[in-house]
């Protein structure tokens, strides 16, 4: 069950939907219910997304959304993030866990759940998220 403080405000929802409309890899999207979006990508695949304003997404949140059949969870505020454990679990289970900015980039990947933000120049490992988590 969603805690009321985790619900995005209407301004954040409009911002998210504007991002969906402008993204070149999204052919169409449908609002299934409040904070639930089914995206149709250029390759024909569908991507079911839960939108939240949770300050820190935990592994429990990821497990819950995987069990509910979602493909991704996006936390909308620029101050929000997720734990390294949540990101690792999401990656291992081909589940997308993103901030909004990461999500917009991930939609360009063949498998958005495996999106990474860069490569560490020192050790060649993939960097995930704004904190540069490494799991390789």
Which descriptors apply to this entry?
136 residues; alpha/beta; 4 helices; 9 strands
Give the percentage of residues in beta strands. Answer: 25-35%
Number of strands: 9
Arithmetic mean of pLDDT: 93
- Span of the ends, CA to CA: 33 Å
pLDDT < 50 runs, ≥5 residues: none
Largest sheet: 5 strands, mixed
Please list the strands of the largest sheet in the order they lie side by side: 1-2-3-5-7
Radius of gyration: 14 Å
Question: What class would the helix/strand composition place it in?
Answer: alpha/beta
* Bulk shape: globular
Count of helical stretches:
4
- Element string (H = helix, E = strand): HEEEEHEEHEHEE
Helix content: 25-40%
Walkthrough of the structure:
It is a single chain. This protein has helices at residues 10-22, 59-67, 84-92, 100-106, and strands at 26-33, 36-41, 46-52, 56-57, 72-75, 81-82, 96-99, 118-119, 126-127. It is α/β, with parallel strands linked by helices. The strands form 3 sheets. The protein has a 5-stranded mixed β-sheet with strand order 1-2-3-5-7, sandwiched between helices. Strands 4-6 form a two-stranded parallel ribbon. It has a two-stranded antiparallel ribbon with strand order 8-9. α2 packs parallel to α3. The longest helix is centred in the first third of the chain and has 13 residues, at 10-22.
Short description:
The protein is of the alpha/beta class and 136 residues long. Helix content is 28%, strand content 27%. A hairpin with a 2-residue loop joins strand 1 and strand 2.
